[in-house]
Amino acid sequence: MLHIAPEAMFYARYKKIKGLDYTPGDKFADTFESTYPSDTQCIDITSMPQIADNTYDVILCSHVLEYVEEDSKAMREMLRVLKPGGRALLQVPLKPGMPVTHEDPSITSPEERAEVFGDPGHIRFYGEDYAAKLEAAGWKTDFLPITELFTDEEIERCVLIKTDDFHFAHKE
To answer: 85 — phi, psi (to 5°)?
Structure first.
């Protein structure tokens, strides 16, 4: 399993699973040593020459692509390192009712990015074309509404957004 930008709560759980070959990685692993676990590898998802084709069965990349300048390149590169039949969760913030992903490279100040894209580090806000973007990179998408996976009580308890989907994708 390749886990990009490993969240501490997931990292702790995955490290305990016996037999799981787990790789936590992030481009900024060396920069944010205090944030990421010490065994997090420095991995740039737009170019991963250190990882062979068809290496991983699972990729978890949650809320990362909205920070990546070359997101299409990252999508293709993650597909390359995923085994045929492999599955991925490629979660991004998606704005309902916005048909096309909004990007504007002239927006550079953190304040304006926060206002336009919802976070000072984001460089885009994905629209309803997100599945098409993944498919253009070679992915097969399996987006599932959160309401199909969880009860209303679970959604509320986990502070999920009821109108969101889980952005699952796979490699044939």
So the answer is: 85, -5
pTM flag (> 0.85): yes
Strands 165-170 and 140-145, how do they pair? antiparallel
Are residues 76 and 47 in contact, defined by beta-carbon separation less than 8 angstroms?
no
pLDDT at 6 over 90: yes
Cβ contacts of residue 72 below 8 Å, gap of 6+?
Answer: 133, 136, 137
From 3.40.50.150, 3.90.980.10, 3.40.50.970, 1.10.760.10, which CATH number describes the 44-170 domain?
3.40.50.150
What distance, in Å, lies between the first and last C-alpha atoms of the chain? 17
pLDDT of 32: 64
- Taking the C-alpha atoms of residue 67 and residue 28, their distance in angstroms, rounded to an integer, is 12
Are the C-beta atoms of residues 167 and 141 closer than 8 Å to each other? yes
Domain boundaries, the chain: 44-170
What are 64-99's pLDDT values in tens digits?
A: 999 999 999 999 999 999 999 999 999 999 988 999
Give Dmax over CA atoms of the chain in angstroms: 47
- Quick one: pLDDT at residue 33? 62
